[in-house]
Design brief:
single chain; 318 residues; alpha+beta; D-amino Acid Aminotransferase, Chain A, domain 1; 2 domains; 7-stranded antiparallel sheet; 6-stranded antiparallel sheet; 11 helices; globular
């Protein structure tokens, strides 16, 4: 069933849907100082900020900054057989390469395809040239730990690693979404490419509904598993991590993407100063009333500790 409430501008306004222009002018421009953007636009900087704040991220195996270092990539890996390569300044999942195994100088992708050493070196060179970066700027290639999803998520998703996005406004969690990859999205958790968005109840991390291409669905199209009979593990900790990112960055309007590793627990994947608006579709709720609620409360109250912010958000938005 198509989400008809998204069709007419009047219905959008009545539902409190936040549009792109309003997001940019009323929230991003107002609450995100431009000088803070580099902290989240560069994943290496994000990792430093998070670690300095005592927040966990996927372990970093190595960094390639210059073309002459590309030929030493094989030695840089050491004994690591599986890993992830990503551009430090990439966006929307572009340029991320997941390697699930390695035989000599051949690399096995998560999809089953094989990359030769020459192909891997070309891939790295493309990252450095800015092929996947914001604005096409020269970039850096990061080599990281490959996430091993929590068993619940591993069973639910298709090939890729599911993540949880929590939107944080002025330190308050205001909306959450689980993103699941599909065959159509090529293993990426990008809703525009066919991934599934599952709206989450802020109270306990239980699903509200699931959507794919703006259509409500009950089961994952590839795994066949139910999308309304689970609970996100470590939900209290996920909310706490997301809220602490506000203090760590100073960004008032922030998207925090977190993965739950089966061995390492919750890990911050990235932060985003310009988080997309599809989280409203997954929740079938508009952001405007929630954002205005936070603004109104802060007009007459001082910013409380994160635990109190979470408590209030659960009271207001569940």
């Amino acid at each position: 069933m198509l989400l008809n409430w998204l069709r007419a501008p009047k219905l959008l306004s009545q539902a409190g849907i936040l549009g792109l222009n309003s997001r940019n002018f009323n929230f991003i421009q107002k609450y995100n100082a431009r000088e803070l953007y580099p902290m989240v636009d560069d994943k290496l900087e994000t990792k430093k900020i998070a670690l300095n704040a005592g927040l966990k991220t996927p372990p970093l195996y190595g960094v390639i900054r210059y073309n002459h270092e590309v030929k030493h990539f094989h030695q840089l890996l050491g004994d690591y057989a599986d890993f992830v390569v990503k551009p430090a300044q990439g966006s929307g999942g572009n340029g991320i390469l997941v390697v699930s195994g390695r035989e000599g100088e051949q690399y096995l992708k998560a999809s089953g395809a094989v990359l030769l050493r020459s192909q891997m070196e070309r891939y790295l060179a493309n990252i450095l040239s800015g092929l996947h970066s914001l604005g096409g700027r020269l970039d850096t290639a990061m080599v990281e730990y490959r996430i091993q999803p929590d068993p619940l998520f591993e069973a639910m998703s298709y090939q890729g690693v599911p993540d949880i996005r929590i939107l944080v406004f002025q330190g308050f969690p205001v909306m959450g979404m689980l993103r699941l990859s599909t065959a159509e999205s090529d293993g990426k958790a990008n809703l525009h490419q066919g991934a599934i968005g599952v709206g989450l109840d802020l109270a306990d991390g239980r699903p509200l509904q699931a959507v794919q291409y703006n259509h409500l669905i009950d089961k994952h199209p590839d795994t066949g598993l139910s999308l309304n009979q689970f609970q996100v593990p470590d939900w209290d900790e996920l909310l706490s991590i997301a809220c602490r990112c506000y203090e760590a960055t100073g960004l008032g309007y922030l998207g925090v993407d977190i993965v739950v590793d089966r061995d390492k627990g919750p890990l911050i994947l990235e932060m985003n100063a310009r988080p997309g608006l599809n989280i409203q579709i997954a929740n079938r709720r508009g952001l405007v009333p929630r954002l205005r609620q936070v603004e109104s409360w802060l007009d007459t109250n001082d910013l409380p500790e994160s635990a109190r912010r979470i408590e209030l958000a659960r009271e207001w938005f569940s």
